[in-house]
Specification:
By secondary structure, the chain is α/β, with parallel strands linked by helices. It contains 7 helices and 13 strands. The structure holds ribulose-5-phosphate (5RP).
Amino acid sequence: MNAPSNSDAGKRAAAEAALGYVEEGSVVGVGTGSTVRFFIEGLARQRARIAGAVSSSEQSSALLRAAGIPVLDLNATGPIPLYVDGADECDPWKRLIKGGGAALTREKILAEAAERFVCIVDPTKLVDVLGRFPLPVEVIPMARSLVARQLVLLGGQPVWRDGTVTDNGNWILDVHNLRITAPLDLEREINQIPGVVTVGLFARRPADIVLVGATPLQEPPR
Ligand code: 5RP
């Protein structure tokens, strides 16, 4: 068994702190990834307190069911009070890159449906400017090379995540070498390319609260 890393300690601390935002009797939106695994472990201890969860991936749905937590359909629940998820990068204004686990589209849907989006990260995820982590873009398979060419025109180097099929049956392009100084504009621009399902930039709907370990991130003055 691997020894727990420092970042695991940060992930666990953030996940435990996020449990404090779960309201009695509510439906909880649950993201995807190794940080969220810790959150699901904690939620399992509190499963009697919640009505159930809506999940951003088949992977998290399986973990939730194994923990005895009912997995509900977002169409049936309507808006949810809370969504908890990790991120691959977070800037000082709580704008994120997500999709390292290929669940970005459902993650974006849950973030949009949530009154409060609590993002849980360890300190290694914090950056001044987004783009060090390759930006994931979910694409309709037949549009892969068309979208890739458009992404090159935007200054990136798209790499096909060969072998990965999303829960929606689509493919992922990871865009390298971007320095994302205007995340809102880039999110809008990439989402408009025909064949793009979602870009993993969360700027239009950033996190409301980012827990870095157990500590909430404070935004700098604008
Ligand atoms: C999955 C995601 C994850 O939130 C992101 O990849 C972070 O994962 P981890 O908690 O394992 O570092 O966006 O699509």
